[in-house]
Amino acid sequence: MTTTTQTQTKSKSSLPISRSPPRGPVTASLSFYSPPSDGSAPFNYVEAPPAGQPQNNFGTINHQVQIHDLRGHESEFSLDRNAFDTLTNVPSQETAFADDTHIKQVYYPEVEKLLLDTVPGAQRILLFDHTIRRANPDAARTPVTRVHIDQTPSSAAARVRLHLPEEADTLLEGRYRIINVWRPINGAVESFPLAVADSSTVRDEDLVGIEHRYPDRTGETAGVKHNEGQKWWYWSGMGDEDRLLLQCFDSENTAGRVPHTAFADPRSGEESKPRESIEVRALVFG
């Protein structure tokens, strides 16, 4: 059971402070979707908004949520059942993650092969972007602490048309998925771990399409409303050789989409290592 943040909880200062990756279940605050107060359609600008426009027009509401540790339970989850999966002992020749060109030349082929080898039915992969996040105030991109899904059915189809316009009509007749490959890049995660909701516990009515406004086009992401029935997990102590697969869309399984968010673990302290991570986004055909 979960409660809103108005409920009295044990103060952070009274919790044991971790100097190693926190383990086990934890209750933490997650930030969920709250609709625009004026009833308008929600939107978010990816870059600086036009003059006179807010960055976004919707709000968030925090709830205290129990987040289970999937460490030791990895074999119980799959993309088809839960819209996320775990992989371990995955080596990489990319270690610096400092140059986008080098990442695309070295890391992208590794990710493509990984998906072809491990995602059932995958026949073709197109990696369309990546994001590096660092949990420090000066970083270009920081961990996203708002529950969301990167894609919706309409934006997933639009992605196919955007990146493969000449083949789109044919590809859209078959199975296509969008899967993110997420991993830390500076050792075991000690702060701002990633939480995922078991997709089988997430109702369609929990999801709200949000216009994702780029300078040259408009996509769509999904905001997520809190629901007591949602079951949340994180993978404690994820290391550089671990991979978390996050399925954002599956054309053959409308429930195959995973809400996710970074969260402030109350067991982390000032001495905890700031999280650094990379997520690579892939169109998966077949």
Order of helices and strands: EEEEHEHEEHHEEEEEEEE
Overall, the morphology is globular
Biggest sheet: strands, sense, closure?
Answer: 6 strands, mixed
Ends: how far apart?
A: 38 Å
Mean of pLDDT: 93
Please report the total strand number as a whole number.
Answer: 15
**Global Rg:** 19 Å
Structural class: alpha+beta
Task: Tell me the fraction of residues in β-strands, as a range.
Answer: 25-35%
List the total number of helices.
4
Helix content: 10-25%
Q: Stretches where pLDDT falls below 50 for ≥5 residues?
A: 1-18
Briefly, what is this?
With 286 residues, the chain is α+β, with helices and mostly antiparallel strands. It has helices at 79-82, 100-118, 153-163, 168-171; strands at residues 3-4, 26-34, 43-45, 59-69, 84-87, 124-134, 148-149, 176-184, 194-197, 207-213, 218-224, 232-234, 243-250, 260-262, 276-285. Strand 10 (207-213) and strand 11 form a beta hairpin.
